[in-house]
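Listing S7. Sequence submitted for prediction.
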Amino acid sequence: MHQCRSGKLLGMRISKDPNTVAIAVLRIAVGVFFTIFGQYKVFGTQFTLHGGFQEGIKGFLQGGAYPFMVPVLNGILAHGATAVAFSVAYGEFLIGISLLTGVLSRIASIFGFLLMTAMWLSGGYPGAQAAFWQYWGASLNWSIFAVSFVVLALGRPEELWAFRYLGTRSRGPS
């Protein structure tokens, strides 16, 4: 393992290791997306209380749920749509905030991966007769984020530009 050479600029750790920088940029970029995805759901009511979530689930059912997910989605619509809508809204928002701040980023990445996998299976089915590559093409809305979350969960996303390191001494080699 190589040493992470770092300095400080305005109290923020600066790394000369391109992998550390790349992981931090990925963490922050995904955090921006998820903060945006979640904030309108948390601070507005269309998604949670006025049918936005239910319309999304109906869209999945009409246009691309994997067959084994259809009963799950119908069950959510019938028994717990509002509770699940709030879980999705606050989940996305908290994942975004966690990634932006660099606090509990690995845990947030695991939950983000689970959320993206659920959405991928709910809306990324191209049909039984589709060619293999079409399964991947149909999943791009979710699979790119799912892979990003795997990278963040396996890497060290809090190593650079994270609030937990503001004002602390630079950590030595790991």
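Caption to Listing S7: primary sequence and predicted structure tokens for the chain studied. Residues 72 and 122 are 9 Å apart (CA to CA). Residues 1-6 have pLDDT under 50 and may be disordered.
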